[in-house]
Design brief:
Chain lengths: ~375, ~325
């Protein structure tokens, strides 16, 4: 065990810190509105130009080949500097790992650099009106078109985060109409400007247009729009699901920064006589540290070749419920000011989505019980 | 950054795990409840393996190891609910005794209580370490009076101790360090006993059938146990990290210990209620083993500082 960072890691942290402190924009509006999204995209391109957009990717695709530890360090420094949530996250954190694992060389060369530069913006097309937590209930279809050498996609995707601002969609479609549930699905990559695609943005809980419905009406895509094998979509998608639930979407740095902001808030408005709120603030600090060190423990195991699959469900539950507690505590500290439309109330509403998206926490608890503890499915 | 134990540390852990599986099964804990008081077979085997004196220098017959080497062993003592003052002897007393040879060899049993009204195994021990006037004092059999008092866990026998004669064995700094070793070791034991309650319950709910299916297939039961497993998952790293900080002299080590102990206490208490509920009436019966571990969890959760006490200490440092 050596819990000190290596010289290389410490130097990487210092470089990140210096650049981020000097360059992180302040006062950006929400990235889930049309005008805000454009400003966030500018920030993404600034990150890319300084090679900080995708530090863990190989250099040939725009990264720095950073180790998993270095990526965690980058994330800590990013959020410590006050960096905004990444509007590119669903591409760089959810799709990209799947492209690295399942993509052809041609797909990697085409998709990844454009994603890193922010030229293509990817939305996730999994959920449907009838398929949420029960993702295997997907009904959108992919029909083979032999003459044209491709596929025709039809159906409806929904709850598509930032779908109204994105240029591309990755999603699951039923390619074998005779197969049921998780069999016979294929993972497709679809440009949203293709004929037959209609995108309709709609408001989230906080009113921002962060959601979209995507309607596909006989949309033609060529064979190279398939990621992984035909009818193999479920296992390809599950690789992404593990990534989404686990580390990459919400790394510890984000919550360490949130806990720091909560401590600052306590120092400025906290009532020293209120022991309960003080205790809640301390709990938030400890929880954020627990997530940080659990991550270092897990990443060490990963780097040493151990598999850490379904444990990502524990991570997802922990950070999402911690995030709600951090924000609820902040609102408690704010007292009558809590109802004002400020950053903590905005953040609270966003935090409330955490136990729902990326697989509800009820489903995650089933996964933990069945795959970590070994309880029977039925 | 490499957050993992060494092969040697894991091998020592495995050896102690095997030893305790043989020498301290639930029947031994139950025997301690029913009058035996302690687990002499396990205790002498641990002495023979070098565990009790592991933190003593080699010149005193020890292994010259640190709390980082002991933390996994304390976890195993917790898993077994070993009815002995394991942490108090091996992690609190041995490192501070001026001549630890007899304790290292297991010829005498030491216990300790710092800032606490009750001494675990106070009436059974040969040496008792206490705090007095901002120092660590050691009183030997003959020099103190121990009055047994009933605790919730009869296999961790409590006593109040008053002494006529005691030797100062450590200054204020040694006192603070001894307290932190006690809190750390107890946190590790809590991690172990939490694992034990979960293991016992997972086995039970896979086996027990109602409505024609194992009760472990019901979501309500699954979610109870998932919550306990999550609490364990996120408490354990802070306990290991605190061990590293204490062993390497990190200036924030006390805060790290408090973070670990508070989460370990909370995880154990949560797991005790979740596993009791998952067992139904079976868990509520005295003949079934769960209560042996639950009561130990309650006792340890409150000793060496309970969760609110440790959070208050963290609060003084960070707020």
């Amino acid at each position: 065990m050596d819990l000190n960072f290596t010289d290389t890691e410490a130097q990487f942290r210092a470089e990140c810190r210096e650049w981020l402190q000097a360059n992180v924009p302040t006062g950006l509006p929400s990235g889930d509105t049309h005008e805000g999204f454009a400003l966030h995209l500018e920030w993404e391109r600034t990150l890319f130009d300084a090679r900080y957009a995708v530090v863990s990717w190989p250099e040939q695709y725009g990264g720095r080949g950073a180790t998993a530890m270095e990526w965690l360090i980058f994330e800590e420094e990013y959020y410590r500097a006050g960096g905004p949530q990444r509007v590119t996250q669903n591409g760089i954190f959810l799709l990209a790992p799947t492209v690295f694992d399942f993509g052809t060389d041609a797909q990697k060369d085409h998709i990844l650099p454009r994603m890193a530069r922010g030229d293509d913006l990817w939305a996730q097309g999994w959920s449907e009106p009838g398929a949420g937590s029960d993702l295997a209930g997907i009904q959108s279809k992919a029909v083979r078109d032999e003459t044209a050498g491709g596929w025709r996609l039809s159906g409806q995707k929904t709850w598509t985060t930032r779908g109204a601002f994105c240029t591309h969609l990755f999603g699951l479609f039923r390619s074998d109409p005779t197969a049921e549930r998780h069999r016979g699905l294929t993972y497709f990559l679809v440009p949203l400007d293709t004929d037959g695609v209609t995108v309709r943005g709609f408001g989230r809980l906080d009113g921002d247009e962060g959601f979209a419905e995507v309607f596909l009406d006989d949309v033609f895509v060529a064979d190279d729009a398939v990621l992984g094998g035909v009818d193999q979509g479920w296992s390809v998608a599950m690789a992404t699901a593990g990534v989404e639930r686990g580390l990459t979407l919400r790394s510890p740095g984000r919550f360490l920064a949130a806990a720091d902001r909560l401590v600052d808030l306590y120092r400025s408005v906290g009532d020293a006589a209120d022991d309960r709120l003080r205790d809640d603030v301390v709990k938030a600090v400890i929880d954020a540290e627990a997530y940080r060190w659990q991550t270092f423990l897990t990443v060490t195991r990963m780097l040493e070749g151990e598999s850490t699959g379904s444990e990502s469900s524990m991570t997802k539950i922990f950070w999402s419920e911690m995030d709600v507690r951090i924000h609820a505590t902040a609102l408690g500290l704010l007292g009558p000011d809590a109802e004002l439309d400020g950053p903590w109330m905005k953040g609270y509403q966003f935090a409330l989505s955490g136990p729902i998206y990326a697989g509800t926490n009820e489903i995650q608890r089933n996964v933990i019980a069945e795959r970590v503890l070994g309880l029977p499915r039925k | 950054m490499r957050f993992a134990f060494t092969e040697d540390q894991l091998a020592f852990r495995d050896a102690v795990r095997d030893l305790l599986a043989n020498e301290c099964p639930p029947a031994v804990v139950r025997a301690a409840w029913e009058g035996a008081g302690r687990a002499p077979g396990a205790w002498s085997a641990l002495a023979e393996m070098g565990v009790l004196g592991a933190m003593a220098p080699e010149s005193a017959g020890g292994l010259g190891l640190s709390v980082l080497d002991l933390v996994l062993l304390a976890e195993e003592a917790g898993y077994a609910a070993l009815p002995e003052p394991f942490v108090e002897h091996a992690m609190v007393a041995v490192p501070v005794l001026p001549d630890p040879a007899a304790a290292a060899a297991g010829e005498v049993t030491a216990t300790a209580a710092i800032g606490a009204p009750f001494v675990p195994f106070g009436a059974d021990a040969d040496l008792v370490l206490l705090d007095d006037d901002d120092a660590v004092v050691c009183t030997a059999r003959g020099g103190f009076t121990a009055r047994p008092i009933d605790g919730v866990d009869a296999s961790r026998r409590l006593a109040t101790v008053t002494f006529d004669e005691a030797e100062i064995v450590g200054d204020a700094g040694a006192l603070a360090a001894a307290f932190d070793r006690g809190a750390l070791g107890t946190a590790a034991q809590l991690i172990g006993v939490t694992r034990r309650m979960l293991d016992l319950t997972v086995d039970y709910v896979k086996d027990r059938e109602q409505f024609g299916v194992p009760i472990g297939s019901f979501q309500a039961v699954k979610h109870h146990l998932a919550d306990a497993r999550i609490a364990l998952e996120f408490a354990r790293p802070l306990v290991y990290r605190a061990a590293w900080s204490l062993a390497t002299g990190d200036p924030d080590a006390a805060v790290h210990v408090s973070m670990g102990k508070s989460l370990a206490s909370d995880a154990a208490e949560l797991t005790s209620t979740k596993t009791l509920q998952a067992h139904g009436a079976m868990g509520y019966s005295f003949e079934y083993d769960l209560h042996l571990f639950m009561k130990r969890a309650w006792a340890w959760a409150g000793s060496w500082g309970d969760a609110p006490w440790h959070r208050a200490r963290v609060g003084r440092a960070v707020l």
